[in-house]
Specification:
Blueprint lengths: L4 H6 L7 H6 L6 E3 L8 E3 L3 H12 L4 H12 L6 H17 L6 H15 L2 H12 L8 H13 L3 H14 L7 H11 L3 H13 L6 H13 L3 H13 L5 H13 L3 H13 L5 H13 L3 H14 L5 H13 L3 H15 L5 H13 L3 H13 L6 H13 L3 H9 L1 H4 L5 H13 L3 H13 L6 H13 L3 H13 L6 H13 L3 H13 L6 H13 L3 H13 L6 H11 L5 H18 L4 H13 L3 H13 L6 H13 L3 H14 L4 H13 L3 H13 L6 H13 L3 H13 L6 H13 L2 H11 L8 H11 L11 H8 L4 H12 L3 H13 L6 H13 L3 H13 L6 H4 L3
Antiparallel strand pairs: 1-2
Helix pairs in contact: 3-23, 4-6, 4-7, 6-7, 6-8, 7-8, 8-10, 9-10, 10-11, 10-12, 12-13, 12-14, 14-15, 14-16, 15-16, 16-17, 16-18, 18-19, 18-20, 20-21, 20-22, 22-23, 22-25, 25-26, 25-27, 27-29, 28-29, 28-30, 29-30, 29-31, 31-32, 31-33, 32-33, 32-34, 33-35, 35-36, 35-37, 36-37, 37-38, 37-39, ...
Family: Belongs to the PPR family. P subfamily.
InterPro entries: PPR_P_subfamily, PPR_rpt, TPR-like_helical_dom_sf
Keywords: Repeat
Length: 880
Amino acid sequence: MLFSLKNLAKSSSHRTKSLGILTGIDSTSIPFTTAATTTTTTCLIPAKDIVLSFKQWFKSGNHHLLHQIFQILKATSDSDHFNHHQQQSSADLALSHLDLHLSEALVLEVLRYGHDHEHDVLSCLKFFDWVGRQNSFYHTRATFNAIFKILSRAKLMSLMLDFLADFRRHKFDHGVRFHDTLVMGYAVSGKPEVALQLFGRMRFKGLDLDAFGYHVLLNALVEEKCFDAVEVVANQISMRGFENEITHSVMLKRFCKQNLLDEAEGYLRRLVTEGKANGSAVGVLVRALCQHKMFERATKLMDEFRDLGAVSMESAYAVWIGDLAQAGRLDQALEFLQSKKSLEGYVPDVFRYNILIGKLLREVRLEEVCDLMLEMKEREISPDTVTMNAALCFFCKVGMLDIAIELYNSRSEFGLTPNSMAYNYLINTFCGDGSVDEAYGVLKSSLDQGYFPGRKTFSILADALCRDGKLDKMKELVVFALERNLMPSGSTYDKFITTLCKTRRVEDGYLIHEELNRISEVRRESTYINLIEGFCKLNKGDIAARLLIEMQVHGHSPTHKLFRHVICSLCDTGNPVNTDQQFFTLLEMQLSCREPTCRIYNFFIYGAGHAKRPDLASKVLEMMQRSGIEPNLSSDVLMLQSYLKSERYSDALNYFNDLRHRRKIRRRLYSAMITGMCKAKKAVIALNLLREMREDGVVPSDDCYEFLIQLLCWNKEYDIAVILIKDLEKVGRHITSFIGNILLLHSLKSQELYQAWVRLREVQIEISDNSILGLLIGAFSGRIWVSQQIENLEEVIASCFPLDLYTYNLLLRCFSNSNMDHACALFYRMSQKGYEPNRWTYEILVQGFLKHGRTDEANRWLKAMYVKGFSPNKQTMRFD
């Protein structure tokens, strides 16, 4: 798999010679498919040659040896005292076998690598200790200063101070002056007052710092803004003839720290006039100007000093490029770099290249990333681990995942330690490529190195694992995070728990939830709902009840439906005694965590009603009254419905009659009783209640008319049904889609409804306003011939009541009796209007074509029915 790197970075579809230049080999043509594209493309260079070229470039530095050193140091565990000494001896032996030629320069290089690339302070300390125990080497002030800086930058001040206290107690003789080392140590550790006290004791004993120690102390005083002491120490440096370029740079930094930029510039100009200026000093001022957003002033200053030719500008250029990039002025930084390269032959160091490449990668400017890597390779600039990580990210970004993985798998050959960005890129790219197992493998490797993916990468991997059903790996991933107290986004955990609940692994979801609670991570409302619903489906209402209370403690408000599901689950245990106890325990817990209100009691009455336990609902009502809370209208409606749902109709009627003495019966209570009696098929009681309702001056709801007309039609009491339609008109209500569909359906079945309509018209009951509805009933009954004057039956129906899918299916059935072409035309028209056909729609068409002997067309519609995922009924299956 291979592409011209630069053009792949540019468009993923063209080729150039850039990759050949980068790898230093001739182009060859091999077809391949890359993750960046979905089409097969001709490549220029085999992937193995790209990998080989990059490996050779990566090996050009000293990173392999440094990486080996830290791999050995990391192998030492501090878990057990005895094992620790055993492993330390093993580490000492392994380091000795490396045959290191110890020198100050090597020790400084190892410590710098450990801090900048491995980020491993403990291993740096181990190496410092091991080196100090070798007879061939004595620590110097520079090596002590280096370890002090590492501890200080890692903000391990307690460890740093313990180190210095131990040094003072034992007065180690490592070929370094004892008092100088202590002064430098406390100065670098952010304790300038202690350093000055020790310095004073030294002077009292007739001892003094050397030039190195003075400058470490001076710089620390400037960093800690002890400006009065700075002047004193600077005078001492001048008196002893130690003043040099470092002194000037530190003193210039003092002005910058005090925000005295004019004075700093004046000081720098004096140095230039006196011939004492240096490039580092110019860089110090340039950085200060950039920090204050004075970029134009910094540009003029650099141009002026460049024209003077008094100092080397490389340090200032390096600072300028880095600060421009950090400030988001990436284009300006790149333009400056190109200008200085062509005009002055300036070549930035690897650190500046890394800054630019990193910024370009984040902005997905891949062609420019390629150009900079080309440039580094051409100029034989040895890449460090940051460069190598950037190269891995680049190959991931351009879709050359196989090359990135080959380099990643070979990392031990050239000392590459992947950083968090590289791990994130690899994981994201694998997930995007559908290689979820490989992404998970990279994650486990990153955990071994002490890295954990960022929230976005964690979320991407979690989504991929959940999507592919790899829930065990997802569970491991979450456990890794929880063990390290790392908290990716709540939505990620919510998604995982939701997936576990949907796959009936609710217990696993609950365990994750419990671990999250252990580290005080408040879960989302949807997480609680999914867990509660999951346990309800498993008939584990006791756990669901605990979660219901817990979600309220965390500030979420459950709905009445959620209460219903929990209560129904509690009541479904098959043990009435245990059920009652759990029900009232939940009620007591609920009342203890929230102020008792009528609404809370109503939730429990509602739940008990759905569980068909009106006895529990009645007890809740009594508890509410004993607590001094008067039941509201909703309480009475819910209590009434609980009797009706349990088919205790006499109790419902008794309760309804009792209510007459407590409150005026209004529409909601009448509607509850009428619809309940209709569902119980007690038409006489329902009609009497409707009549009573009308006599009381209460207008019935649509539900009352719909349920009653439906029941009367099923009972073939069409005369009363037609009277109710007239009554509906009298109270000012309109025919609903439900009522209209019921009338058309029964008209299709028989002519009795139309006959009832005609009878009532003949006895002079006024139904003139519904004359069109009467014509429709007659048409659907087959008693009235529909002439060409009614060109659009849909519009006629729409003038009576709103059409819905059920209406269209009735129309299809009507047309299929006479004309299948009209039926098909209606099918396409309803689809165009946004009505999604259901199973009944297709069966009407299939059976219609069969009725007319058009079996081929029936077969085509049957296949279309299967494609839509519908299964035909038995009558249609006879054809299949």
